[in-house]
Amino acid sequence: MDTTSLTGKQLAADLNAATADRAAALTASGAAPRLVLVVANDDPASGWYVKSLQRAAGKLGIACDTVDLGADASADAIRATLAELSGDPAVDAVMLQTPLPAGVALADVSSAITAAKDVDGVSPHSLGLLATGLPGFPPATAQAVVELAKFHDIPLSGRHVAVVGRSNVVGKPLAQLLLAENATVTVCHSRTTDLPAVTSAADIVVAAAGRAGLITGEHVRAGAVVIDVGTNEGPDGGIVGDVDAESVQGRAAALSPVPGGVGPVTTALLMAHVVRAAEAARG
Ligand code: NAP
Q1: How confident is the model at residue 150 (pLDDT cuts 50, 70, 90)?
Q2: CATH superfamily of 31-114
Q3: Which of 78, 132, 165, 277 is the most exposed place for a label (fewest CB within 10 A)?
Q4: Is ligand 1 within 6 A of the CB of residue 169?
Q5: Is the model's pTM score more than 0.70?
């Protein structure tokens, strides 16, 4: 069986073209949409991600500033900064980068980001809106999985989707989004007994565990679709996913590549959220 590559590049390009037009219209009518990234770590991967967001924003006409609080910032200092940015009319969107300093919980500090500016949907309020089907910003990575499937005409309604990972940023919100698409969802995690048996019962497997090579051909039934969210450092310093692509090739009907699958769609959706937040703020 030929395994189709579920690339995210065309979808990201389409989303970015629309975002750039909307950003230009906002700029023409007053000021460019403005995103602020709040950093409280000295993690190289986070630094790389911040640079890539700044580059993406710059290309689309979105102003992007960074507030660096240092790797030893307290929960109170992070919360105060997020609250101040939430109340600043010159700021349309706020994103808090992870990892956070030891002892600081994302759910605790992110509650200081107002839902209207929470473009990566991390706060308990945003996650509650998602769970109850109310309008808000879903976490961009979770949304990217759904949008990538739709773009490639992969039906979700009535399909059995196994999500491997239950984090608040990917696995859990993805389960909510998939339920909203009428999929039947199984959420797996590190205590799941016999992971290959569970995932190979699914029509679609989404790997979001952060473990390179976790999902092999043994985890995937012939003809299933596999979407790889994982971004792990590979042996040669490059990025690899959670799926052992070699063992899944020829068995799965389709597989999203890493890099070039979920990643570019995630960034494009984040930037689309920034523009949507700015449009809503300016009426
Ligand atoms: P996380 O917070 O570390 O959560 C990982 C989840 O995977 C946990 O629920 C964990 O289970 C589960 N897990 C770990 N090992 C497992 C195993 N052997 N079998 C089954 N489940 C296992 O990670 P995250 O923030 O959700 O991110 C997941 C991956 O997505 C990472 O590689 C991350 O870099 C990537 N990511 C990509 C993008 C993108 O744009 N492409 C964006 C965000 C994240 P427990 O709950 O039991 O510990």
Answers
A1: very high
A2: Leucine Dehydrogenase, chain A, domain 1 (3.40.50.10860)
A3: 132
A4: yes
A5: yes
